[in-house]
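subagent[fold] <- orchestrator: predict structure for attached chain, return tokens only, no commentary.
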Amino acid sequence: MHTQILANIPSPPQGVWQLGPIPIRAYALCIIVGIIVGLRMTLRRYTARGGNPDTVWDAAIVVIPAGIVGGRLYHVITDNQKYFCDNCNPVDALKITNGGLGIWGAVALGALALWVLFKVKKVPLGPFADAVAPGLVLAQAIGRLGNWFNQELYGRPTDVPWALDIYYRVNEKGAYAPVSGHSTGEVMTSVHPTFLYEMVWNVLVCLFLLWAHKAWKLGHGRVFALYVMGYTLGRFFIEGMRSDEATHIFGVRVNIIVSLVIFIIAAIVFFLLDRHRQGSESPEEVDPKYWAENRDSRQRGDEHTVSEGQQRDSSTT
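subagent[fold] -> orchestrator:
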């Protein structure tokens, strides 16, 4: 029989609330809050470097849906046994609110969508990627709270003081429903809160990127490469602590292999970019067209101000 430890972290009693006929899902709310926080940080960082704020909104319109679709595709592909088995319902693969977004797919398809957008707009992608990196990893940290509400992405059973208690949840019919059900108060097991480990790690990566960008004068996409390195480094170790179902290759969880491969690629890209270009971009390099337009408007504004001053001077003589 399991003995509950008072110091353990409790799981929320439920992850879905009904507002009349409308289900309010904590997982979706966490993702939305993460997107808002990441977007605000990106907007502030990109415009501070001389970028056009409209570019950030254009990117959001393209990246958010691409990231969600890419993240879901990666999850469904790597965890296909959950949706395509004898007792599975393939329609569940479309139920994104039940949880299941693979960050690799989200970043990959989102980055591809961004590349196409910036090619069309003829704006350098590197400065924007550097601006978005800290906000992106912070958004991931906030989104991980959704896994807490859904009682997912946890690790192996443990008796550490910060262990996470997983509750037995049932729906209105009394059937077991780990995501949408209500807790009965019964603790099924106590596990490593790997979602929390990743959340804390992501916040630390965010702070490190903000520091490194200024201290090392990074630019031309190197901050984004550093983000990929930082995230995959933490994910490599945290993934090994998880015990949920996952696709394995040669007996190793697929996300561990993906983390290692992407870390190596990102490290190579980081050092190659450093060889070709030193320092961060000037405002003229971030968005040449927007900078030129702003420079002309500022000059016109200065000339207008001078002209007004001269008129006031002449009227007082």
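orchestrator: received. Logging for downstream: Residues 1-5, 305-310, 312-317 have pLDDT under 50 and may be disordered. Residues 288-316 form the longest helix (29 residues).
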